[in-house]
């Protein structure tokens, strides 16, 4: 099947319209007519080679929602007409200890990324900046009716990337949670942490988004450009979620944690981050990382977001604005996630 898409021809060239081939629908496959695809900061890192060489031309996009157009003969969980989503992975070995535990994102054999990955049949995966995609049914999520469809797309990456560590490290009533950065990831971290019942603080470089942060569910908002912030908030938080994809002063942020507190990195800067081990030793603190979630947990996140009426704050764009959107993401000029209307790809 030949479909319209937008692809990066190389790390240095703008994305451009193209035609790609999708595989035939196999017995356990689902053909999805894509309605919306979110633009994730990791799309930009990937296509520009920040995280290593990639196969080109490359169609990005791993925040995908659409309608089931066809199902394979063995598919029982999804039917034609269903609202569905696809996130950051489309396959895994399914047999290693991590896959069996529902952590397919940490597959010992390497999970297959939605784009730029090598699938089990040896083909290179192409992502959601396209009109259609064929995905193994086991990696297709159900999108509840309670979430606006366009606003649901970023949940497939940004939503689960923040939900998973918030759940794992116990965000909830009685817990003080800080979110570093109020961007595509951060604004959803605030919404989800608030819905979980935690006391939420935003730590941003400036106060220019303070009104937004409080509207989204934050109880407090502080500027990290003010050195006094780190003095006033020292030892305050049980959990800090760092969502920014740029270097931060790790030691200064670790100093904001209470005894047994944890700083979790979900943003992925291209540069290494440094820390002084005494920032950990001094209060039995932990420094951790987290990457999306398994299929079961991602479905749990979608159901939770539907129950609490959580979707991303999105700016809907046509496909011919993708390159402009990339520049605006890098300039932090979006509130808070660009979403491509796939109807404009054809």
UniProtKB/TrEMBL annotation:
Indicate yes or no for the key word RNA-binding: no
Q: Name one GO molecular function term.
A: zinc ion binding
Q: What catalytic activity is recorded?
A: a primary alcohol + NADP(+) = an aldehyde + NADPH + H(+)
Domain Enoyl reductase (ER) residue range list: 10-340
The family assignment reads:
Belongs to the zinc-containing alcohol dehydrogenase family.
TM helices/strands, residue ranges: none
Domain of life here?
Answer: Bacteria
Q: Required cofactors, per record?
A: Zn(2+)
UniProt name for this protein: alcohol dehydrogenase (NADP(+))
Name the EC number(s).
1.1.1.2
**Whose protein is this, by species?**
Micromonospora olivasterospora
- Alphabetically list the UniProt keywords: Metal-binding, Oxidoreductase, Zinc
Into which EC class is this enzyme placed?
Answer: oxidoreductase
